[in-house]
Amino acid sequence: MFEHEQVVIRSGRRSRLPVIVAVHSTALGPAAGGLRLWHYPDWRDGVTDALRLSAAMTAKFAVAGLPSGGGKTVVALPEGTVLDPERRRDVLQDVADTIESLGGTYSTGPDVGTGPEDMALIGTITSHVFCRPAHLGGSGDSSPHTAQGTLAALRAVSRRLYGTARLDGRRLAVVGLGRVGAGLARLLAAEGAALTVTDTDPDKRKIGDELGAVWCSPDEILAADVDIVVPAALGSCLTAHTVAQLRCRAVVGPANNQLATPDVADLLHRRGILWVPDYVASAGGVVHAVSTELHHLAPDEVRARVDAIEHTVTGLLDTAESRGRTPAQAATELARRRLRATAGPAGT
Ligand code: PPY
Question: What are the Glutamate/phenylalanine/leucine/valine/L-tryptophan dehydrogenase C-terminal domain coordinates in residue numbering (predicted)?
């Protein structure tokens, strides 16, 4: 079933690359979601990614209790493409034109492959952009806040499984040391967690060493003997095959689209492994951006909203337990309920 409100696929005027903007829903408010600038075997794979990621943004905002809708932009780069600065600027301007043409229905932000400087450039063409650097009036890099929100989710899970929200001495495996993963690993190390880490980029081993973490190869880390696995790399790491290998009690992390297919949530449940939906654990970044830039909250109020992810997760785990559901089902039902409670797309 096609459930998106609008999907725009355009060949960029300057770059001639496919710019894909998927607006999944504006039922709760104007849509937001980052710009993913990434390689795909075929541009159609970029469309599939945009469709899934934008739907997850709708659920992310609904469960976080924010009045925004879900969208995402993907620029599908052919495999092996390296963008020089000039071409990168062309791509970003093409994206900005497309967003501007949507007239505020959708605002973009950072995602895999983009950051605050890219948002600054987009901001020269359209005002519908989050996370520009602070000196330009934006809320800056969202990744520390995504990491903070994931920490809040981990506390809720720790309390449920071990009776304490403290993570010192807890064994965690962080899969991926990009901006969010490395930030989260630092927060966890500072708290005294025993870390195992990995990344597909061997240079990231330095970060692990700095934190006193055990390095593990990417294809072995999911089977590591740890308490909690924390996916923080590109999506779809949870498959029937990898779930069978897990030795942990929970999987909680900031990576988007962790499940290869939705039924993998049931496999995790049947193995007695607690999985917090990615769109719940990863909400800290958008919560920070939207609360700061749209709702103009003070920094301590914004921080309280990010930390409230702990209560959201606790609530979902309670509901799941009392109704005999998985946390994934409890989250889907909460999102549906909040979306049903509205009249329809914004402005109708
Ligand atoms: C996400 O949370 O998946 C994002 O897309 C990041 C983001 C951050 C801030 C505004 C919009 C999107």
Answer: 140-347
Contact 16, 1 (CB under 8 A): no
**pLDDT in the model for residue 347:** 46
- CA–centroid distance, 271 to ligand 1, in Å, is 31
Domains and CATH numbers, the chain: 6-56+69-136 (3.40.50.10860), 143-283+312-335 (3.40.50.720)
H helices within the chain, ranges in order? 43-64, 85-101, 116-122, 143-162, 179-190, 205-210, 240-245, 264-270, 278-281, 284-293, 299-307, 309-323, 327-340
pLDDT at 348 over 70: no
Q: Is the CB of 285 under 6 A from ligand 1?
A: yes
Residue 72 a catalytic site member: yes
Of 210, 219, 142, give the one whose Cα is nearest residue 173. 219
Identity of the amino acid at 163:
G
The position carrying tokens 């709702």 is 295
Task: Judge whether 310 and 165 are in contact, CB under 8 Å.
Answer: yes
Residue 288 has which token pair? 């920070």
- Residue of 57, 67, 65, 173 whose CA lies nearest to 111: 57
The closest of 214, 141, 218 to 180, measured between CA atoms, is: 141
Q: Two tokens at 170?
A: 């807890």
Statement: residue 337 has pLDDT above 90:
yes
State which of 75, 111, 282 you would mutate to test the pocket of ligand 1, scoring each by most atoms of that ligand within 8 A of its C-beta.
111
What pLDDT band is residue 107 in, cutting at 50, 70 and 90?
A: very high
Closest to 172 in 3D by CA, of 196, 149, 150, 152: 196
Determine if ligand 1 sits within 6 Å of the CB of residue 70. no
ipTM (interface pTM):
0.96
Residue 9 to residue 12: CA distance in whole angstroms: 9
